[in-house]
Every structure is written in structure tokens, then in C-alpha cells.
Write a structure and sequence with these properties.
Elements (H helix, E strand, L loop, with lengths): L1 H33 L1 E6 L29 E6 L8 H16 L3 H5 L7 H40 L4 E2 L2 E2 L5 H4 L14 H13 L5 H7 L4 H17 L4 H7 L9 H12 L1
Antiparallel strand pairs: 1-2, 3-4
Helix pairs in contact: 1-2
């Protein structure tokens, strides 16, 4: 967990440097766009205006101002930032993304030059990093707060189920919990679902695990499925069509049954 904190520190330092660079570049660009300059007296000439009066020039489109004799205008037009601004910004944002453990394309909202494979790999790596942070937060904060709260709630009889407070002597039993952090949708739903089904069929994963990977509670999902089936049966939908709605293919009638049905229909 120390690595997570130190990597974040390096990213914060780069953010500060990038913020200063961007502000300086913006100021420089505004100065360059203003096309300012200086008045310079030639040798042998000097100011003749009254004391306290300054020689100034106002720039108007398509107009020019006549200058006093002996005065030259020296233009000051800095050209920075030019072509190096965008590469420097991208390089800095990439370093920040690396320090934070996130994908550069998501951090900078930059999809230039990416393809499906590269952005998919970046998203998967980023999600693994978020999972590590979720585990860190659960272990160091969420679970500790829950255990402290549970003791107080049981002793004060604040947790009531079916009209009866839970027994405080069953504390260890109630402390056995499973935390379900946020999860993400499939990147390629068709391929990912097919892969999950194949893993399940080959006993490489469980129904519950795949449901939890989507950020849902397996018991809630199964209860919703059971309610859907009960409602469809109550509506009079045959079980074979319910199975079909759940992804099970109907078994085609044997050829003999088809011929019998056809014979009865013509007869």
C-alpha cells in the first residue's frame, strides 16, 4: 500500500509542474497575440512631452499612429508556445497517468491513435488497479468501521429483525460479511459473455463469481430471476417458452411427430 501512496505523490508533483507550465504558456501566448513592443529614442533625440506624460500607442485594425521624430518602435512578439506545447502536455499527462495507475486515454480524454485492442488492454489494467485500491479501502477503513459499529449496535439492541433485536453473543457470526465493491460493464459484451459461459461450463468459474464481477449480488439476481419465472407462469406462458426466453433452445420435434401432425392436419 506504500507503493500506492508514493506513486500518487509523484503524480501530484507533476500535476503542480504542469499547472505552472500551462499558466505560463497561456500568459506568453496572450502577450504574443497582443503584439506589444517598446519605444526607443534614436541617438541625439529625447522626450519632449511634459513631465508625467507617457508615450503610448493604441492599436486599431487597419490604422497606424505617427510617432514623434527620433522614436522607433521595437516589436516584442514571443513565439512560444508553438509546436512543443502539445507534445509536452501529452508526455506530462502520460507520466501522471502512470503515477496514478490509470489509463492515459481516460485521464486526458484523448482517443487519438488508439485501437480497440490497445484501449481494451489499458482499461483492463486500470480496472485491476482500482480493484487494488478498493481492497485497500475495505481493509483499512470500511471493515474496521463496520466491526466497531456492529459491537455498539448489538449491545444497544439497535439491529432488529422480525421484531427482535439480534443477540450480542453472536458477534463473531455477524462479523462474517462479504464486501461487494463497484465493478464495470463488459468491454466486449458478446465475447466476454461467451468466455464467461465457457469458463462456467468447464468448471473454471462459478455463477456467483461472474455475477459479482458485474457488481451485483448473486442472491439478488437469482431472486429476480425466480420472480420473473413465477410471473411468466402466472401469466400462462408454457415452461418451454420460458426456457427459451432464458436462452435455452427448444428441442425440435422428431421427424415422425412432424409427419403425424401433418397427416392429422390434412385428414
Amino acid at each position: 500500500m506504500t507503493t500506492l501512496l508514493t506513486s500518487g505523490a509523484t503524480a501530484l508533483w507533476r500535476m503542480k509542474m504542469l499547472d505552472g507550465f500551462e499558466k505560463a504558456a497561456l500568459v506568453n501566448a496572450r502577450v504574443s497575440a497582443s503584439k506589444g513592443g517598446f519605444f526607443q529614442w534614436k541617438e541625439g533625440y529625447g522626450p519632449e512631452q511634459e513631465e508625467g506624460e507617457e508615450l503610448t500607442m493604441e492599436a486599431e485594425p487597419g490604422s497606424f499612429q505617427e510617432l514623434p521624430a527620433g522614436v522607433e518602435f521595437k516589436e516584442w512578439a514571443p513565439q512560444y508556445p508553438s509546436g512543443e506545447f502539445a507534445p509536452f502536455m501529452k508526455s506530462s499527462l502520460r507520466a501522471i497517468a502512470t503515477g496514478l495507475g490509470v489509463a492515459y486515454n481516460n485521464l486526458a480524454n484523448d482517443l487519438e491513435g488508439v485501437n480497440f485492442s490497445s484501449i481494451r488492454q489499458g482499461a483492463l489494467d486500470e480496472r485491476e488497479h482500482w480493484k487494488d485500491l478498493q481492497e485497500w479501502m475495505i481493509e483499512l477503513l470500511v471493515d474496521r468501521i463496520f466491526r466497531s459499529w456492529l459491537k455498539v449496535a448489538l449491545l444497544s439492541q439497535r439491529i432488529v429483525v422480525s421484531g427482535r433485536p439480534l443477540r450480542a453473543d453472536r458477534l463473531e457470526r455477524y462479523q462474517v460479511v462479504t464486501w461487494q465493491p463497484r465493478r464495470w460493464a463488459w468491454i466486449d459484451p458478446r465475447a466476454d459473455v461467451a468466455s464467461a459461459v465457457e469458463m462456467k461450463n468447464n468448471l473454471m468459474g462459478s455463477f456467483g463469481q461472474f455475477i459479482r464481477d458485474q457488481g451485483r449480488d448473486p442472491q439478488t439476481v437469482w431472486r429476480e430471476v425466480a420472480e420473473d419465472i413465477a410471473q411468466m407462469r402466472e401469466a400462462g406462458i408454457p415452461d418451454e417458452y420460458i426456457l427459451q426466453a432464458m436462452g435455452r433452445k427448444l428441442n425440435p420435434k422428431p421427424q415422425e411427430e412432424k409427419e403425424e401432425d401433418g397427416g392429422n392436419a390434412t385428414g
